[in-house]
């Protein structure tokens, strides 16, 4: 059996503490016919030296160094340089299981689809926080069903990692430069080109969070990109599948809530307080679908109720918890 070349793209910027484990997890894959394409996005720490070591250690590793342009540009460059018939993405602070590539490639070849995905685990400081594995069986789903599940935040997500793609699928599709939540602006467009997608129920990707608490972060206006990206996606979905309108409205409510939470628990709350108020008012005007039977997420209802008492009250509740589970 011919084993096609798979390109694994690893964008990296100043990941001296994590890049070694990341690349090693790819190097030891049970599927050996790999091109490990690392895009060094202008790192100025010890990352370049670590990558040089891998060049001498494994001929499958390719390193391309550029000036700092951001993760979208790094991924776009990786796609343009990929030699593999299939490609996958692994972020430089994450690791993958030994059979990550083999598992995904078997799915994409067995079901003859352009995209296959697996589930993932969330790891915080080396400890398993959550495992999204749901079954040992894979599911072949239609494009419409994929959109519906994504809008409902069930089983599927918009991350570009944890998936394998036919490389040709990226023809005419690029990650948006200078934007956060670039996956949200890109993955749905890839699915839009695919008629069917296979979803594996097993977790093979380990998403590592360095800091388990979002209360210690700063807020940037770039975080508003989530709302923009979500609206872009929901507009596309509803234009093709009008019966998913309520699910799209609920996804938009979630995007507003996620952004609001980031403001409320950040160090910059008082700086962006007026923005928090505007988002709260926007959510209040959009809360009708939240209280319908079509909303399966009780947490959205709870948030809508708490916001009636104002953002200061809601903020106090958020700050009680170490982590905001509802809008990650």
Short descriptors:
alpha/beta, single chain, 10-stranded mixed sheet, 11 helices, 328 residues
Question: Can you walk me through this structure?
Answer:
- The structure is a single chain.
- This protein is α/β, with parallel strands linked by helices and 328 residues long.
- It contains 11 helices and 10 strands.
- The protein has helices spanning 19-27, 47-57, 71-81, 100-110, 143-151, 182-193, 225-240, 245-264, 273-285, 298-306, 311-320; strands spanning 6-12, 34-41, 61-66, 86-89, 95-96, 115-124, 127-131, 139-142, 163-166, 196-209.
- Strands 1, 2, 3, 4, 5, 6, 7, 8, 9 and 10 form a 10-stranded mixed β-sheet that branches.
- A hairpin with a 2-residue loop joins strand 6 and strand 7.
- Helix 7 (225-240) packs antiparallel against helix 8.
């Amino acid at each position: 059996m011919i084993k096609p070349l798979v390109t694994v793209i690893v964008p990296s910027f100043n990941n001296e503490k994590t890049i070694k484990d990341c690349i090693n997890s790819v190097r030891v894959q049970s599927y050996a016919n790999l091109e490990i394409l690392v895009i060094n996005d202008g790192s100025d720490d010890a990352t370049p030296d670590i990558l040089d070591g891998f060049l001498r250690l494994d001929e499958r590793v390719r390193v391309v160094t550029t000036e700092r342009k951001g993760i979208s540009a790094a991924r776009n460059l990786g796609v343009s340089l990929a030699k593999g018939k299939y490609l996958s993405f692994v972020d430089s602070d994450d690791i993958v299981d030994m059979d990550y590539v083999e598992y995904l490639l078997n799915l994409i070849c067995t079901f003859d689809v352009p995209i296959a995905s697996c589930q993932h685990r969330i790891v915080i400081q080396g400890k398993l926080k959550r495992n999204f594995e749901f079954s040992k069986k894979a599911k072949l789903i239609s494009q419409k069903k994929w959109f519906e599940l994504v809008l409902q935040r069930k089983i599927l997500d918009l991350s570009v990692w944890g998936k394998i793609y036919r490389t040709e699928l990226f023809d005419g599709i690029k990650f948006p430069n200078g934007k956060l939540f670039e996956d949200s602006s890109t993955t749905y467009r890839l699915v839009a080109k695919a008629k069917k997608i296979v979803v594996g129920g097993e977790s093979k990707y380990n998403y590592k969070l360095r800091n388990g608490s979002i209360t210690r972060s700063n807020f940037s206006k770039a975080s508003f990109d989530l709302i923009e990206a979500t609206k872009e996606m929901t507009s596309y979905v509803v234009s093709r599948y009008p019966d998913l309108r309520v699910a799209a409205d609920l996804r938009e409510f979630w995007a507003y809530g996620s952004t609001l939470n980031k403001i409320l628990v950040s160090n910059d709350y008082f700086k962006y307080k007026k923005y928090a108020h505007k988002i709260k008012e926007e959510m209040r005007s959009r809360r009708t679908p939240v209280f319908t039977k079509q909303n399966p997420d009780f947490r959205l209802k709870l948030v809508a109720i708490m916001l009636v008492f104002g953002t200061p009250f809601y903020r106090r509740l958020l700050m009680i918890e170490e982590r905001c589970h509802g809008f990650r």
